[in-house]
Amino acid sequence: MPKLIINDQEHDVPDGITLIQACEFAGVEIPRFCYHERLSIAGNCRMCLVEVVACPKPVASCAMSVNDLRPGRDGAPPTVLTNSETVRKAQEGTLEFLLINHPLDCPICDQGGECDLQDQTMAYGFDAGRFQDNKRAVEDKYLGPLIKTYMTRCIHCTRCVRFMTEVAGVDELGAIGRGEDMEITTYLEHGMRSNLSGNVVDLCPVGALTSKPYAFVARPWELTKTPSIDVMDALGSSIRVDARGREVLRILPRIYEAVNEEWISDKARHVWDGLRTQRLDRPYIRRDGKLEPATWDEAFGVIAERLKALTARRSAAIAGDLAAAEEMFALKLLAEQLGSPNIDCRQDGAKLDPALGRATYLFNTTVAGIDGADAVLLVGTDPRVEAPVLNARIRRRWRQAEERLPIGLIGTEADLTYGYDYLGAGPETLAKIADGSHPFLKRLEGVERPMVIVGQAALARPDGAAVLALAAKAAMKIGAVKQDWNGFNVLHSAAGRVAGLDLGLVPGKSGRDVEAILDAAGKGHIEVSISSRRDRHGAAGAMLRHLSGSHGDAGAHRADVILPGAAYTEKDGTYVNTEGRAQMTSRAIFPPGEAREDWKILRALSAVLGQPLPFDSLQALRAQMYAACPNLALLDLVEPADSGAIEKLAAQTAKPGKERFGLTVDDYYLSNPVARASSIMAALSAMHAGGSEKATGTDG
Fold first, then answer.
1. Maximum distance among all Cα pairs of the chain, rounded to whole angstroms
2. Residue 698 burial (C-beta neighbours within 10 Å; 0-12, 13-18, 19+)
3. Which of 38, 281, 460, 484 has the largest CB neighbor count within 10 A?
4. Is 129 exposed, middle or buried (0-12, 13-18, 19+ CB in 10 A)?
5. Average of per-residue pLDDT values in the chain
6. What confidence tens digit (pLDDT) does each residue in 180-217 have?
């Protein structure tokens, strides 16, 4: 390990790191604007200058490797000073130059209170500048419905350009002109189309890029900040919910290296306006074909009256994609007490079965494990849409590979932001991989840690079970499952799916799954359906549909009884992400009106039915849930699943059909009830469809 003397103290630092990282390792803060540890080094701002003894001039610490520093003539380690007079003058001079053209409009800047330029000017600048010339003015740019621009503030740090090119994988931002005429802009000034574009607002150190939906809404010190978990996809990104009063005003990412690092998708960031529109805030009962407001007692009475007149097999329970583990556990207990075997959490019809073993439905490699993979086979998935942050991680691994990382895709062709070999469209291609006859296998010779990622488009079809078995065979064939490496992965798109499978929310003996429940309802064989957050269209017929949910979406319009539930920002709930990591959301605000948490609704309904569930508090519910499913108690941990289940699955006979794999997400921005209630998501959807960003979610 190299030795450095930093401010008169000797330190051993890791080999190959930069000088700015070495100073941080030693506990010394170095100011910076252009440097970011997850982006390439630009060396634009010169704010990180330090003094290296015996060097003729200050050194940019972000671009200098510790291995390039020479020892002193007496053999002493290189000496670095970060608090000398030379460094102080360099910092003050740099800030003086940066502020020559800055408009100094802090009182009206949305970045005020969270601005790196503001903070560093206070800490490292001085009280007056010497330049009296007119300030440079730059025309603001149109970057779409998410990003508001004040380009006169821009200091050309190029963080946004490097993020879009390197992390998002889209060359949408760049610099034109030279010197004083240099400007950051999109090509042809179109809106940014990457579903990770909102992260450039967090990266901008000077307020040149701010959040357009959040503009002039609040100051950071007015907000209550609550750590939570995103449920817009199954990745489980760590987020911070900022609220004022009873409204969520913005959502920001939290750093969590194992899952999302410090990025979140645009849907996770900007879906907050959908949390307060089209809300269900009171119970409703359908009378004479029309939904009318009712009391809780009246709504429970209608459900109880109908249920008591039926046999158990004429009722069913369905858990939705956004349901937390607590409410799914309560739903399962209620179904068991009613004696109904018709229960399912797989809204899309995915042929996943917890009886086959937990490893058959998890992302076993883990998200962080992508960094160690040296080959990837994608089956029936478009990770750029289904899990944008995970896709960025695959792209990073692809960029960092010494040789071109072998990536193969079976399914619908898509722009994944990285190069791949298109192998085929359906199960026939997967079968060739499994039997060793596909030419792509030649590219995998010598590969030690390959991984297979199976998407829901390959599993949510009648032959999904056969496709899953065939994928397991392919994983075994390419060596993806071994003692020290489990590269068989299922990529989920629903936040509540893994917890539902862990809890066993699948049909009991001779029970019906979602598709069979809807078919039976249409034929009158099932007359009561209890749905928790089900947002997809149900079947027609004489069935009594009871919906517990937060938004008045398609499912609510078809329901006969509506019981208003709490959204994910309004409750403490457990979610398990696609890799099997249990995490908790935290209540940031209270539910509107008479809405209640779903487990409380189910507990109250069970009492009206005369079969009360055996808990009266969230703590009591969780105690029973943890006893039934211990892995839910391992918060923020991933318990490796037994890879033997994959070997058994691969041994099964698999005869899938010939239909090609499609896509599981029709419209990324309108994929759930909260998103469909969001005007921001509607604007993004319209922009991607080639329409006006002023469209609404109800435009047909």
1. 95
2. exposed
3. 460
4. middle
5. 91
6. 889 999 877 788 889 999 999 999 999 999 999 999 99
CA atoms 437, 442, 444, 446: torsion sign? positive
Q: Cα–Cα distance between 177 and 367 in angstroms, integer? A: 40
Cβ 520 vs Cβ 359: under 8 Å = no
| Residue 55 backbone dihedrals phi, psi, to 5 degrees | -85, 140
Give me the pLDDT at residue 542, please: 43
Fold of the domain built from segment(s) 284-351+497-633: Rossmann fold (3.40.50)
Please give the Cα distance from 581 to 583 (Å, whole number).
6
Q: Residue 386: what pLDDT?
A: 96
Q: What predicted TM-score, i.e. pTM, was given to this entire model?
A: 0.93
What is the pairing mode between strands 561-564 and 544-549? parallel
Q: Where are the domains of the chain?
A: 3-98, 106-211, 224-275, 284-351+497-633, 364-491+639-650
Task: Give tens-digit pLDDT for 465-475.
Answer: 999 999 999 99
- From residue 554, give the alpha-carbon distance in Å to each of 263, 302, 598, 664: 31, 21, 19, 18
Note the pLDDT tens digit of each residue in 356-378. 999 999 999 999 999 999 999 99
Residue 121 φ/ψ, nearest 5 degrees = -65, -40
Q: What is the dihedral of CA 231, 234, 239, 241, to 10 degrees?
A: 0
What is the radius of gyration, based on Cα positions, of the chain?
A: 28
pLDDT in tens, 229-240: 999 999 999 999
106-211 maps to which CATH number?
3.30.70.20
* Separation of alpha carbons 297 and 284, rounded Å: 11
Write a three-state SS string for 154-176: CCCCCHHHHHHHHHCCCCCEEEE
